[in-house]
Structure formats: structure tokens, C-alpha cells
């Protein structure tokens, strides 16, 4: 295994029971940055006692936590992983290697459930519908918008992501498309999480996620249409010029 300079951002909201397992499986040389949004179960202390860097972010929201983790990062590569033990951080290694080899700019994990309980039916169907819209909008051949992601820090900072709620992962892909970056996915295991879901496992979380993501996709489609119209007008003007 090549030893890389990698910071792993782990958004964390009450994941005290999951953290020991997640952090124990971090590949050698990878630094954990656990971003806590006011957990009440001692998550921050546990993460600290296990050697993680802990960032406390007062503003709630998944994207807010991710952005705070990125702000605290210094490594050449940044990875994102849920702190709920549903994914194995060792699966980050091949993703980091793909980016390091220059094969892709944003490497995503395509979740493969290891058991029936790993992925609820509604979350799976919503994810499939989202992946369809994402493929249509960007042309990337994606089938999942998974939580395991790797980018070069410089590329990620260049995207200037603004979403601070559930749209953060989607905005990362849309902004990568605008920036002309290469995005691809590789299979990773997806196991049942430890503890209760905060996003797709709750009605409030699911509704917020759908609202955030729909808004981003609509804005992206409008922008693409405007860009298409502007490019069309320019080429019409050019053709006109040639005719004259
Ligand atoms: N810091 C922070 N972490 C969050 C927030 N919401 C979710 N998380 C964490 O983000 C990760 C993804 O959330 P999760 O509940 O697993 O969503 P699911 O994968 O859709 O079930 C987990 O590690 C959560 O603890 C939040 O508002 N703030
Ligand atoms: Mg999760």
C-alpha cells in the first residue's frame, strides 16, 4: 500500500457507539478529522481519546460539518466518510490511489450492500432516482451518490462549495462538472450503520435532502440551459458573420 497524505473528514452527530470501530479501521497515515455539531453522547471526547482531530462546528447541518472539516484539513488529499460504521475507511485506499494516479479527479464509492438491512428501500430508490437525474444533468456515468469520496484538496477548494445542508455531496459533483473535472465511482461495501440514521433514515432528514438536492439540480439545469442558449446565440452570430 502506498502511504499517502490524506485527511479524512467524518461528519459526526451522536456517533459515540460507532466511532471506535470506524477510527480503528483508518488506514495507516490517514488523519481523522471528526466534525462534531453539538453531539450529546460524548462523541467528541471519544474521538479525541482515540487520537482523532476534533473540530466543533456550532452551525448545524451535514454540509456545514463537511465544510468545517475541509477548512481544518491540510493534506494533499481529502476524503469523506460517514462516522456511523456503515463503510470501511480501508475502502478509501483504492479511491485515493485512483486520484493520485491521475485517473480521476473525484473518486466516489459505489455502495454495495453487504446485507439486506444495510440500505432501506426508500433510501435506495431515492438514491437511484437522484443518480438518474445526475447522469442526465452531467453526463457522468454514476449510479450512486455515496458518502465515501476523495479529491485533491486544491481541486476541492477550487470548487467553492456553498451548500451547508444535505446538498453538499451533490453540489460537489455538479461543481466538478462545471470545472471540467473527471468523476468516477468504484465499488465499496455498505454495511448496516451503528445507531440511528440522521439523514435518510428520518422523515425530516429525507425531506430536507430531497429539497436541497432538487434545488441544486434545478439551478444547475437552468444554468445549463442559459449557457446552451448563450453558446447557441454566439454560434449563430459566428455563422452570420461567416455568411456576410
Ligand atoms: N456534524 C454533523 N454530522 C452530521 C449531521 N447530520 C448527519 N451527520 C453525520 O453525517 C453522517 C451521515 O449521516 P447518516 O445519519 O449516516 O445519514 P444516512 O447515511 O443517510 O443514514 C453520519 O456520520 C452522521 O453522524 C449534522 O448535522 N452535523
Ligand atoms: Mg450513513
Automatic annotation (TrEMBL):
What Pfam families does UniProt report for this protein, alphabetically?
Glycos_transf_2
Residues annotated as domain Glycosyltransferase 2-like: 8-145
Which InterPro entries does the entry mention? Glyco_trans_2-like, Glycosyltransferase_2, Nucleotide-diphossugar_trans
**What are the UniProt keywords, alphabetically?**
Transferase
Q: Which GO terms describe its molecular function?
A: transferase activity
Belongs to which family?
Belongs to the glycosyltransferase 2 family.
Record-given protein name: Glycosyltransferase involved in cell wall biosynthesis
